[in-house]
Each structure stands twice: as C-alpha cells, then as structure tokens.
Write a structure and sequence with these properties.
Blueprint: H1 16-19, E1 24-31, E2 36-41, H2 54-79, E3 87-91, E4 95-101, E5 106-113, H3 118-136
Antiparallel strand pairs: 1-2, 1-5, 3-4, 4-5
C-alpha cells in the first residue's frame, strides 16, 4: 500500500486571543479525525491542569472529535441528514468546554472555568474562525491505494 501522510501545521499561536479572555483556560484546534492541529493555555493558570502538554491536548482533540461526531449524529436524527453542527457545549462542575466548526474538516475547542462569560467566549470563537478559518481548516486525507 502507498499513501501520503502529511504533517498538520501547528496553529496553536492563533489561539492566543482566546486564551487571553478571562476565565478561558485552554484552547485546541482539531482535525475532523481527532488529530491535534494546535493548542494553547492561558498564562498563570493553577489547579489540576495549569498548562496543556501535547499528550493532554491530543486527548482533548480526540474527545472533541468524538463529541462532534455524536452531535452530528444527533442533529441528523432530529433535523435530517444535511443538518450540520455549528456549536456544542459541555458543562461540568468546574467549567465549560465549547466546540465550534472551524473551517473545512476542523473544529475549535475551548475550556473555561465557571466564572467565564460563555456567551463572550462563543462570540470570540466565531470571530476567530471568521478571521482565520482558512488556516484552521484540515484537508481530507488522501485515500490509500494498493499497488500490485
């Protein structure tokens, strides 16, 4: 089998405007198949996860992709096959995680604490996607072909 595996560009630096919003802890950009394209954490964090390392960001990316697929399945069931998912939100005892579509084949995830203005965070996520969405997109993987 022959195929091409290309390295995804790290777009973590683009997340700085989000991680500067009060209450935002972490942000991650994810390809639709769950690969981390970039991540960032707010400065000066304390607590259980003061900074996302690469392994934690990759786990968050996989969870983001799984939730996005679940959201797409739910939307298709309720609104028809062509119903796309724009945003998802998970609320926990300690904060929120917001996911939004971030261009073709990519999603943006942001984790906040309980004090964050979730409406402001969602708005700023949309503004960031509108501003730099082309850089956040992930091209579909090339199909593997077998040569005999």
């Amino acid at each position: 089998m022959a195929g091409t595996i290309s390295r995804l560009p790290d777009v973590g630096w683009m997340l700085r405007p989000l991680t500067q919003i009060p209450g935002v802890r972490h942000a991650v950009v994810v390809s639709e198949d769950g690969l981390r394209m970039g991540h960032g954490s707010a400065e000066g964090l304390t607590g259980d996860v003061p900074q996302l390392d690469v392994a934690e960001a990759e786990s968050l990316a996989a969870a983001c992709a799984a939730l996005t697929v679940t959201g797409q399945s739910t939307a298709a069931l309720l609104f028809g096959e062509d119903a796309g998912v724009r945003q998802l939100m998970v609320e926990s005892d300690k904060g929120f995680v917001l996911f939004t579509s971030a261009g073709q084949g990519a999603s943006l995830g942001v984790a906040t604490d309980m004090k964050a203005d979730v409406g402001l965070v969602a708005q700023q996520m949309q503004l960031l996607v509108a501003k730099i969405g082309a850089h956040l997109s992930s091209r579909p993987r090339e199909s593997m072909t077998s040569t005999s």
